[in-house]
Design a protein that fits this description.
This is DUF1501 domain-containing protein. The protein is an alpha/beta fold. It is built from 12 helices and 17 strands. The N and C termini lie far apart (about 70 Å).
């Protein structure tokens, strides 16, 4: 049986018609690459993002959006329509165990859970009307991170890395600190079909104590730096020779770029991770002097250090191996514990960024994959179920209106009701603050142009300062 070799189109262009086809191909490829380094589509308000992800779903009803009717009707049946799809069965209405007060010149309400963040409300833009589509952790987390709850798609951080690149050639454009490995896992910070260099570089994971969370293989005890450099140069020469014959290969080129970045990171990343030279005042600001706040405080301090060194997107996850903010029961005990761990570090981050002049062009985004129901779940009248129908996220710095509240859920806090903001709208807005048009930030894959917002999304310009 004979075997027939079928040349690729690139090979045909290169080898036929005296090579004139290859000249045309090279010209087209050169034109495609002529844009050089990534640039924003228009003047940005923010240069970087720090995403504080509260894994599991903090309750908007117990943190930043009080509901007087919920307090009044505690224990009564919910009077409105329940969502067609719910995660679990719930009972009657449950008022918040915490008291709310108004803070700052803006008068934004914050519960007793967040006394330190409450002192920063004049810098915060609350969005009380976010809504998604999935009541399960996996789908909701993927939706928030990638814009899709059922397909493998590039993460928000990867899209931003692709659109803007890094401002420091010795550090990655996207770093994720102690990410959860549950509910989508690596897909929440992956690059999917975007170049491999766009994916998030993880520092440990949610099950790793932060002091042990390091970039894997950041040291090479077997080879000196000179030997590694020689090895990489040889590999690069071989692959350039291959690319010259076979034509452009995005996956291979991205992998080569990742090798080079990993080599440069051997010096830059340990320096960025080293917080020992921070002043005692700064360390206390983040709560590093308290064993309760120190773990998340170190994560937030590292986020600031990475952001000021040119990392475009830093994600900091508050979670453990039990899905930290998922209080189907023991709401009073565990929401109080969770808030205690993050409240002072988050406020410290906002104050530190502001004092250093970084908050004006750093967008800080806080939130979980969904909120919680106004109705009770679990024994002891002490839990809330998942609620993607309406919940709160907030932003600070980076060109958003300070001391501002936008949107609202209904009178009991179940459904987004006023100035509704879908997850796609949030993504479009974050990209716009970075100078990126979500409809133009596309990548050709499998015969179509993909984008973070798919075919949806509206920029919420009312949030802009």
């Amino acid at each position: 049986m004979s075997t027939h070799f079928r040349p690729s189109r690139r090979q045909v262009l290169r080898d036929t018609a005296l090579g004139f086809g290859s000249l045309a191909l090279a010209d087209l490829l050169h034109a495609a690459d002529a844009g050089g380094a990534p640039k924003p589509h228009f003047e940005p308000k923010a240069k970087r993002v720090i995403f504080l992800f509260m894994k599991g779903g903090p309750s908007h009803l117990d943190t930043f959006e009080p509901k007087p009717l919920l307090d009044r009707d505690d224990g009564k049946p919910y009077p409105g329509p329940r969502p067609r799809v719910v995660f679990a069965k719930t009972g009657n209405l449950l008022k918040s165990p915490w008291k709310f007060k108004r803070y700052g010149q803006c008068g934004s309400p914050v519960s007793d859970l967040f006394p330190h963040v409450a002192g920063c409300v004049d810098d915060i833009c609350f969005v009380h009307s976010l809504h998604g589509t999935n009541p399960a952790h996996g789908g909701a987390a993927l939706k928030l991170h990638t814009g899709s709850d059922n397909f493998v798609r590039p993460s928000m951080g990867a899209w931003i890395a692709y659109g803007l690149g890094t401002a420091n050639a010795n550090l990655p454009a996207f770093v994720t600190v102690c990410p959860t490995l549950a509910h989508g896992g690596v897909n929440n910070w992956g690059s999917a079909f975007l170049p491999a260099s766009c994916q998030g570089v993880p520092l440990g994971n949610a099950g790793t104590p932060f002091e042990k969370a390091k970039v894997k293989y950041i040291e090479n005890p077997a080879l000196t730096r000179d030997a590694q450099r020689t090895q990489l140069d040889l590999l690069a020469d071989l692959n350039r020779e291959h690319l010259a014959q076979a034509g452009p290969d995005g996956a291979l080129e991205g992998r080569l770029e990742s090798f080079e970045l990993a080599f440069r990171m051997q010096r830059a990343m340990p320096e960025a991770e080293d917080t020992s030279k921070e002043t005692d005042k700064t360390r206390a600001l983040y709560g590093l002097d308290d064993p309760v706040t120190a773990p998340f405080g170190r994560q937030c301090l590292l986020a600031r250090r990475l952001a000021e060194r040119g990392v475009r997107f830093v994600q900091v996850t508050h979670s453990d191996d039990k899905v930290q903010w998922d209080q189907h029961g023991n709401l009073r005990r565990d929401h109080a514990k969770n808030a205690r761990e993050v409240d002072k570090p988050i406020a410290g981050l906002l104050k530190d960024l502001k004092a250093r002049g970084l908050l004006k062009d750093t967008l800080v985004l806080w939130g979980g994959e969904f909120g919680r129901t106004p109705t009770v779940e679990g024994g002891g009248n002490d839990g809330r179920d998942h609620n993607p129908e309406g919940f709160t996220v907030w932003m600070a710095g980076g060109g958003v209106k300070p001391g501002f509240r936008y949107g609202a859920t209904d009178d009991y806090g179940w459904h987004a009701a006023e100035n509704k903001v879908h997850v796609h709208d949030l993504h479009a807005t974050v990209l716009a603050l970075l100078g990126l048009d979500h409809e133009r930030l596309t990548y050709r894959h499998a015969g179509r142009d993909f984008r973070l917002t798919d075919v949806h999304g509206t920029v919420v310009k009312d949030l802009f300062a």
